[in-house]
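Q: My collaborator sent me two sequences in one message, no labels, and asked for predicted structures for both. Can we handle them in order? The first one she listed is below.
A: Yes, handling them in the order given. First sequence, followed by its structure tokens:
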Amino acid sequence: MRVLLQRVSRASVTVDGEIVGQIGAGFVALVGVGHGDGEEQAAWLARKVAGLRVFEDAEGKFNLSLHDVGGSVLVVSQFTLYADASRGRRPAFTDAAPPEIAEPLVERFAQFLREEHNVPVEMGVFGAHMLVEIHNDGPVTILLERD
């Protein structure tokens, strides 16, 4: 599994003209699922996201976690994180897990954040065409991966 994590001041997801998820300060987690991924990867990534210290303290150092700043996470499925653009001009997505495997794992990742780490979570809509508005704060963008 891969999570492209962006620290945000605010973010939202719109589907068919309707906002389906929005947060204030926190993270947007763009989540991709690969072949062979399972609950172990989802749990590890949720733990990492919940505890990652990339929010600034009073001295401007990355010492605070999501809990310390009272932040939320907007989870958006993103199979394109598994794009292979090494050949030609059109990326291949053969390394991405099929929807019947990916969707439950994205949901499970969000559930781990909520239930195991007490993090408020909003969601995009799996498989939908989403307009994601991200106000990247910093900018801070971190790629997390767990094979």
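Q: And the one she listed second?
A: Here it is, processed independently of the first:
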Amino acid sequence: MPGHTDVVVIGAGSSGLNAAHRLRQLGKTVTVIEARGRIGGRAYTDTTTFGFPFDRGCAWLHKADDNPYTPLAKQWGYTLQEHDTALEGLYFRGAEAPDEMRKLSARIEAGLDERIAKAGRKKDVAASTAMKKRSRVDEAVATFHGPMSSAVDLDELSAKDYLTIGTDVPPNFLIKEGYGSLVARFGKDIPVSLNTPARRIRYGGPGVQVETGEGTLTAKACIITSSTGVLAAEKIRFDPPLPPWKEDAVAGLPMGLLAKIPLQFSKPEFRYKAFEDVLRENIGKRDIYFLCWPFHLNLLVGFVGGDFAWELSAAGEAEAVDFGRNAARSVFGSGVDQYFVKGSFTKWASDPWALGAYAAAIPGSAGAREALRRPLAERVFFAGEACAPRWTQTCGGAALSGIETAELVASVVK
């Protein structure tokens, strides 16, 4: 690590890598430090667990017609499959809902989306206030809008913030080779100091000093791309301390959780076809969504979100896999057991450098994203999915945040 640089970028995820890339284009010297032993952050493609690429973090390339990763994926020959959730299967406590109920859910979903947006334009209330009924179908729809999309239950989500969330912005594509591998390839030529977490940032005098276990970096400015979970846990100390308005912004954007329970089978594509979607509703919000056989692989990818995802994360991987297998039996029949190979569970809740999946504003804190974006003393800047100017909660939004923050920094750092 050089002792002095124009800008220190903290975090080598999607936002940090894009910030560093843009700063270098603008002629600035940049040092990137990363707490993990790899780049990519919450974009991570695992190729060892199942013998083929599996995205443990972000998987959907949202808003593909404007996403900065889309042209790279096409240029490098990645395999893209358009996928917008259509819900081919809907189950209530193991019983399949009739077609008319599944079609009703699609109509209710469109109406709920409009009501949440309308409520958010008027007042910063909980998104759950937009629910008029509490039927089984309404609850199923709420599962998609809350835990499965926003990573929090609707009663914990600001209706006004809901208007900024970009997790359901078509066109959406899945990537056979893995979204994480795409981000890692983008960042492979950017020098990064791995296993180097920032411990303290001093910004009271001219420039900034970033203290790490490998020494102290001095720079004209720094860009922090750490999650709000990391900031809330005070894994990075500030001198002087963060002002109250910045602490309020962090507190107003707690991390939500969307976790995956991938289940591998020896026989692919039974009961449902590749890329079809199934939602299984259960008592107590113990719901799971299955993406069936992506790219014709012998894999069911189960998703759990919100409060229940935190509950399963606390219980541990073995219990999470058992839950996923039980849910698979209720949808596909007990015969699936003879084909079961292995299961896994994503552990973003306990990852010390994530502490969740992505940030969601609590009711009353819709202005927290704008406050989080505001720099400190024109020297300490913030970027990431929580700060995204559009398509928040997405990898593409994090990239845009890094690019735009880099341009802002370059305009003030001479």
